[in-house]
Amino acid sequence: MLFIKKLVNFLSLPSFNKKKSKKILDKSSKIYALERLKEIHNYDYSTFVANYYRAKNYTVWEYSKEKNLIDYALNLVVKREKNILFIECRSNSKEITLENLLEFEKVGAEFLDQYRLFKNYNILYLCICSEDRFSQQASVYIAKNSHISYEILKEFDV
Predict the structure, then answer these.
(1) Are 20 and 50 members of one domain?
(2) Tens of pLDDT along 137-158?
(3) Are strands 59-61 and 76-80 parallel, antiparallel or unpaired?
(4) First-residue to last-residue Cα distance in the chain
(5) 131 and 108 share one domain
(6) What is the pTM assigned to this prediction?
(7) Fewest beta carbons less than 10 Å away: which of 37, 50, 120, 140?
C-alpha cells in the first residue's frame, strides 16, 4: 500500500512527464494522479476486485471482459469450494437503484440458464462498490434478501 501511495505522489509531480508537466501541475490532486495511474497501467476497478479475490484464494472468471460485454451487470464469477459469487463492480458515483439490483439478478439467472453446471452451487449476488451509493429501496431490498449483498471496497486509501 505504501508503494502505491508513493507512486500516486510521484505521478502528481511535474517532472514525471515533461510534455504534460503543465497539465499535471494544473491538476496536481491525488485524484488526478490516480487517474494517470489507471491510464498508464490500463487499470480498472473490476481488475482490482478480481485480484482482490484471487489473493483470497478464489478462482476468478473475468466474465464481462472475456465476453467483451461493456456496462454489463455481471463482471466476475468467483468460486471457492461450493460457493459462487456473482459480482458486479461499481467504481463510479452513480446511485445504485432497486432496478439495478433486479437487472443484476436477471443477468445472473440468464447466466445460470446458460451454464447449468453452476446450479448445484451456493450462489450469492454481490455488488462491490468503491463507495456506498445505494438508494433507500435498494438498501431495503438487500436487507430483506439473503441471496444478495454488497461490499464497499476502495481501490486506494488516497
Answers:
(1) no
(2) 999 999 999 999 999 998 765 3
(3) antiparallel
(4) 10
(5) yes
(6) 0.71
(7) 120
